[in-house]
Amino acid sequence: NGPELEGTVTLRERDTSEQTRVKIDELLPLLIEKSR
Prior knowledge:
The chain is α+β, with helices and mostly antiparallel strands. It has one domain (about 5-35). The chain is built from one helix and two strands. The chain has a two-stranded antiparallel ribbon with strand order 1-2. A hairpin with a 6-residue loop joins strand 1 and strand 2 (about 20-25). The protein is flat, with a radius of gyration of 11 Å.
């Protein structure tokens, strides 16, 4: 885990197992959008 990964999380789509790396400060808006 290098410095380029600091401040990020990995989201995994339940149905497809697709993974996406997201900056922590972008996480809440993304989760709100995906939950609609």
